Amino acid sequence: MTRRHLVSAGLVIVLGVAVTAQRQAGNGGEEGAESRDMRLVGHSDLQGRSAYQPEIKRQGDRWIAYVGHHGGSKMNPLTGREEPNGTSIVDVTDPRNSKYLAHIPGQALEPGGTAESGGAQMARVCSGATLPRADKTKTYLLRAYGNTANSAHEMWDVTDPAKPTRISVIVSGLRGTHKSFWECDTGIAYLVSGQPGWRVPRMAKIYDLSDPAKPVFIRDFGLPGQQPGSTGTPPGDNGLHGPVSLPQQNRVYFAYGFVRDGVVQIVDRDKLLNGPKEPTEANLLYPQISRMDMPPSVGAHNVFPLLRMPIAEFAKEAESTRDMLAIVDEAIGGGCAATARAMMWMADITTETKPFGASSWTVPEASGNFCARGGRFGTHSSHENFTPIYYNRIMFVAHFNAGIRAVDVRDPFHPKEIAYYIPALGPTTFCTPGGNGLPCVKVIQTNNVEVDDRGYIYAADRAGTGMHIVELTGAARSVANFR
């Protein structure tokens, strides 16, 4: 994390003093890291693979991390073979001594393709004990395979996480995949897919995976104007990025357009699953409760509902709670000139048919001279675990070269950062293209974050640095609901 694109010798001296002072204030247990009220617990290098989404699940007495990867290839020491990046499986029961168990190869990087092609970026895991019609003794991995032509969604048996076996290919022949959502208590899955014929790279293919060995297709879904046969400019930039479903609330939240022209859609789940299926404009509108169109420079990369939030300031008033929706934009390109600042936005959805923007949060660039460091600076994603330890209290946000940021959202109209951790560069960190005239540099690129039900925070690095496991300390820890 120490390298920057510097424009003068004078600036090198000034930044050097600032960073030294910051590190002396406490680096969380990792030489070269930068932190406040957050410390390192453990680390896995993930074989140096570019990492996207971590999913952490308890399996019996063990805690297992399933990490999706971008395209590329690395040597797998467990097999002695070079393997296309796919899915890493890591035992994090003792996060201080994690154990790499297995790597499931993904789709090979297409010739001349970027890291966004190939790989197996996304993973979701459900226990058969909760799925309605599954083998109760098994654990299942739903993963995306590839992100280009001939990509697919697969189902794997990971009951023994060291020996994963593929059960089936749910759907193949897609133009791309992305961040699906799987309801473990019902089995309904929203598979983000590049369906041929649709006018955007990604939409939702909805399946009943309550019996993972026997997938049942339900319907295709997207915004009106994205479906085959529609006209005009399709809404939502590159289509669907990721949904979040709350079956108990009868709601599904969809995020479209990850870097610009973002659209957030709130959908009635029952109408979505049981209403008319043919993707006509009328049928696509039927389950929609509301739609929030973002400004042209703002994307909707992922969303996270924060419902029935008690607002301390309103405690004496008739309406003392609010329903909110965190919307996270994605920073792209190198440096800071490629796009507008990618931030986390808070929308008030208490009246679902009339959502409105309530606040925003970002890392001040000058706090770490982040534009000069190279790589991306800005938000990418938030955690998605609903654990009571953090729900309606703290949001953890991946901020690329600004690392992991912890944001106190108890007052969602004034979100406040309370902790951060920027990992140090490691031996597996590779060079990130600078963009906008900046040179290629080695720089932290925290891509995704997740938490587990024990309260540990996991950060996956896009630049091959691996997965860091951290925890809150000091005043920040008191905001959480540890019992």
Could you explain how this protein is built, in words?
The protein is mainly beta. It has a domain of 241 residues. 7% of the residues lie in helices and 40% in strands. The protein has a five-stranded antiparallel β-sheet with strand order 1-28-27-26-25. A four-stranded antiparallel β-sheet has the order 2-33-32-31. The two termini are 34 Å apart. The relative contact order is 0.13.
Protein topology:
Layout: H1 9-24, E1 34-36, E2 38-44, E3 51-59, E4 62-69, E5 73-76, E6 81-84, E7 87-91, E8 99-104, E9 123-127, E10 139-145, E11 151-157, E12 165-174, E13 181-182, E14 188-193, E15 203-208, E16 216-221, E17 240-246, E18 251-256, E19 263-268, H2 269-274, H3 281-285, E20 288-293, E21 302-310, E22 321-328, E23 344-348, E24 356-361, E25 377-382, E26 394-400, E27 404-408, E28 416-422, E29 431-432, E30 441-442, E31 446-451, E32 457-461, E33 467-472, H4 474-479
Antiparallel strand pairs: 1-28, 2-33, 3-4, 4-7, 5-6, 7-8, 9-10, 10-11, 11-12, 13-14, 14-15, 15-16, 17-18, 18-19, 19-20, 21-22, 22-23, 23-24, 25-26, 26-27, 27-28, 29-30, 31-32, 32-33
